[in-house]
From TrEMBL:
Molecular function via GO: fatty acyl-CoA hydrolase activity
Recorded family membership: Belongs to the 4-hydroxybenzoyl-CoA thioesterase family.
Name of protein: Acyl-CoA thioesterase
Entry keyword set: Hydrolase
SUPFAM superfamilies reported for this sequence: Thioesterase/thiol ester dehydrase-isomerase
Organism per entry: Cytobacillus horneckiae
Domain of life: Bacteria
Length: 133
C-alpha cells in the first residue's frame, strides 16, 4: 500500500481574509493525509513512542497551483515515493471535486532515535510499503 486518499471539506476556520483556504491549512491537511497513511499500515504515534523512534521532517516543498474555497470537498493523495537507508519521501497532491489539482507537495523524513537523537534505518513496516501493492 503505497498510496491512500484522505477526504476533507474546507471549513470556515480554514478561510483567510482573501476568501480562500489559508496556506497553513493545506499543511494541516497534508499532515492528516500522512497520519491516515501511517494508520493504514498499522503505525500509530504510540508505535513510535514505545520504540523510542520518530521521524523528523528534513525537507518540505509545496507548490500551490489553485485555490480552495469554503465548502470545497478535497482529496489529499498521499504516496510513499522513495525509501532510502535512513529517510523516506512522501508525494502529496490535493484535488478538488472536479479533480483539478490544487497543490503538489513533497516531504522527506529521517528516522531517528528519540534518546540518542541519531538517524536510524527506516523501519521495515515503512520500507515494505514500496514493494507491496
Amino acid at each position: 500500500m503505497k498510496e491512500i486518499l484522505t477526504e476533507i471539506v474546507v471549513q470556515p476556520e480554514d478561510i483567510d481574509e482573501l476568501g480562500h483556504m489559508n496556506y497553513l491549512r493545506y499543511l494541516t491537511y497534508f499532515e492528516k493525509g500522512e497520519l491516515d497513511w501511517f494508520a493504514r499500515i498499522g503505525v500509530s504515534e504510540e508505535y513510535f513512542i514505545t520504540r523510542d523512534i520518530g521521524a523528523v521532517l528534513r525537507k518540505f516543498d509545496v507548490d500551490y497551483l489553485k485555490e480552495a474555497r469554503l465548502g470545497d470537498s478535497l482529496k489529499v493523495r498521499t504516496e510513499l515515493i522513495h525509501v532510502g537507508s535512513t529517510s523516506f519521501t512522501f508525494q502529496q497532491d490535493m484535488f478538488n471535486s472536479e479533480n483539478e489539482q490544487l497543490t503538489e507537495c513533497k516531504k522527506t523524513y529521517v528516522m531517528f532515535h528519540l534518546v540518542t537523537r541519531k538517524a536510524l534505518p527506516v523501519i521495515k513496516i515503512i520500507s515494505a510499503q514500496m514493494t507491496s501493492k
